[in-house]
Amino acid sequence: xxxxxxxxxxxxxxxxxxxxxxxxSVPLKDHCTWRIGGPADVIVExxxxxxxxxxxxxxxxxxxxxxxxxxxxxxxxxxxxxxxxVIKITRAFSELSIKENIVTAQTGIAVSRLxxxxxxxxxxxxxxxxxxxxxxxxxxxxxxxxxxxxxxxVVRSVNVVDLQGKCLTLSQSECGFSYRASVFQxxxxxxxxxxxxxxxDDPVQIRKRLLEILRxxxxxxxxxxxxxxxxxxxxxxxxxxxxxxxxIIEDAGLKGLRVGGAQVSTKHAxxxxxxxxxxxxxxxxxxxxxxxxxxxxxxxxxxxxxxxxDEK
Length: 312
Hints:
This protein is of the alpha+beta class.
């Protein structure tokens, strides 16, 4: 099992190595949309791909625990935090270039910003992502999207940094996209850049679609309380047999159900909100209560979309 030096010593080593911005003993609740999580030993924000490669090689050579995050919009961190290095891909990785209908984007760019920017350029195909919190890297790793669509449908290729700090390029087929899944959930790679193949369309029409999607999201989803987005997967089989998770949970009478500071949203039942002092333990217990109640009522097994990160 990887061993991790004391946070201050580790931070000093990384600062001397020159791998980006380095901070020790940082609360993870400040780095996720749920606002939950204890301290990470060290958080590093590389500013270039070269720094990221150097950092990954250091982690590999020294056998240090590590974790990669973007905006933390689909993560539940342990109440005791994370023992090791958290690599955060930030706005430093947000370069964007367009050649005809091919978009090359670094993966620290915010998803909503990307959708709006490309819409203004008359490029269509990712309108369904507008309003989704998080970065392009996280979206690709989760093969995220909405309205029964996913980002993998428009991906041409993906550039990654592997465990030893080497750069690799994957074709769309090599990404292994399926519903809310990809090869990146199984491989210890960091997505740094992607090529997207979009379609030309009237910017006015694209803008109308973007605004309509945003309007619907404002009406349906809790926007002002800390949350991680949808908690449970809406698989084709589940949808066909019982409907979407939100409706199933609501029909089970679970809207407003609460454990500690965690509560099933009264606006949309597939969201769990942090009412102000929720812990990871609260959320995990609430998730189990929902799964148990739904199974008892419908015989359906809900599957979590959110990823739980323990101390190691």
